[in-house]
Design brief:
globular, seven-stranded parallel β-sheet, alpha/beta, 7 strands, single chain, 8 helices, Rossmann fold
Length: about 270
Amino acid sequence: MKNALKSKTVVITGASSGIGEAMAKVYAAMGAKVVLGARSEEKLKALAEKIIADGGQAAYCATDVTVAEDCKKLIDKAVEAFGGIDVLICNAGISMRAIFDDVDLSVLHRLMDVNFWGTVYCAKYALPYLQASKGSLVGISSVAGLHGLPGRTGYSASKYAMTGLLETIRIENIKKGLHVMVACPGFTASNVRFSALVADGSQQGSTPREEGKMMTPEEVARIVARGIAKRKRLCLMEAEGRATHFVKKFAPAFLDRMFYWVMSKEPDSPFK
């Protein structure tokens, strides 16, 4: 596979843990110049130092993606450190586990602030540089952004919103050479699920799914890299994502029932 990231400047949000951290390490090892954004400056500093010690190139900027000015500072840091931007990966995200009947509205606002508006802010400030480099704008979405996921109301809504935003940006830039990709990992062994918000806005603290049966963050990072190299529009990972995309076209009602059944089998499911 062509190494599309060698010598490229790659900005990654949510880079202090999980998929974002794996991307930073994997892409730096591939020769990319990585620019890391997340709320924890301490974790970013440690990660950047590790990458540099291993012979890579890295810069970082403490970033709360719900704050537009923070997102601008992250983009400015990338340009200051490396002269431009070739790839922006909007990875920062949070999840939730509660049905719409029970969830506090503040939880839905929080999901949209991080997952949707965080993407809006970073994409807006990075767009001129991505247009100049004919680079890649990548959103880390989910199967929940392809079909409504029961018990994940705000999460699905935020990922649908992200997809709509990115698809529109793609169309608007048809003549400018900008590559836009929506990437949909399956359930991934990362701390996003442990910090998922429940109905009252507190963190669930544990996951109802088996870690050993999930994708690893490193697997996701490598698949996204291949998607960027091939300039894919939609990057579906694992059979469940591909099946969801296919079945929805022909049997959406059947897919509704299947999603309900799967979620009803989770421990402490509200659908039992």
